[in-house]
Design goal:
Structural class: alpha+beta
Strand order of the largest sheet: 1-2-8-4-5
Order of helices and strands: EHHEEEEEEEHH
Protein name: Gene transfer agent protein
Radius of gyration: 20 Å
Oligomer: single chain
Strand content: 15-25%
Distance between the termini: 9 Å
Number of helices: 4
Number of domains: 2
């Protein structure tokens, strides 16, 4: 299985000015935009870390997900949430031949934790032997920063500020995350029921 991010969050959508205020950076010196690229990088890094920990996509992007088998024949749990639309389903043979599946043959069951691709009939289409299915979808809380839940927005700022403060530190424990951030994102972590509930 492979999840590919087809689009990225545009620079203009990043809350650079709000992050500067969070960091209490000085203003009025004529060089307010000097660090914008650096601050944007820390925001993107914090977003990526939180998305990885929670399985939640913060700002709307388009994704492509390929898999070689269905977990269940009538539905398939999708790898991230929230998903707003499934835009394409295709079957790909081993030699690369692609068959598009009509949109009226499947539908999206929206769920805050485990959205599902469901068959309209009894079962999803057969994936070719040694081939794959490709599902394209849009995921995220919204295209604007204001669409994020307040606790996730604060978690991004806290983690990005942590990266900024310790940007020259090389001895931090790998994968460490400040306690305040962990507390804010705890309720968004996907629940795992039994073995491999999220395939």
């Amino acid at each position: 299985m492979m999840l590919i991010e087809e689009t990225t969050v545009p620079d203009v959508a990043l809350p650079i000015e709000a992050f500067k205020a969070h960091l209490r950076l000085g203003t009025g010196f004529g060089q307010e935009s000097v660090q914008d690229e650096v601050l944007g990088g820390f925001l993107r890094a914090a977003m990526a870390a939180i998305e990885s920990r929670t399985g939640k996509i913060l700002m709307t992007r388009t994704f492509s997900w390929s898999l070689t088998f269905w977990r269940d024949r009538d539905c398939q749990v999708l790898p991230v949430a929230p998903i707003t639309a499934v835009t394409r389903l295709a079957l790909v043979t081993r030699d690369g031949t692609t068959t598009e599946i009509a949109a009226d043959q499947y539908w999206l069951e929206q769920d805050s934790q485990r959205p599902r691709l469901r068959a309209v009939g009894a079962r999803l289409p057969n994936i070719p032997q040694a081939g794959s299915a490709v599902v394209e979808f849009e995921a995220g809380f919204g295209a604007d920063w204001s669409a994020l839940p307040a606790d996730l927005s604060q978690a991004v700022f806290l983690l990005a500020a942590h990266y900024y403060e310790y940007r020259d530190e090389t001895s931090l424990q790998e994968g460490s995350m400040p306690f305040g951030v962990s507390s804010l994102i705890e309720r968004y972590k996907a629940l795992r029921i039994g073995g491999g509930a999220r395939r």
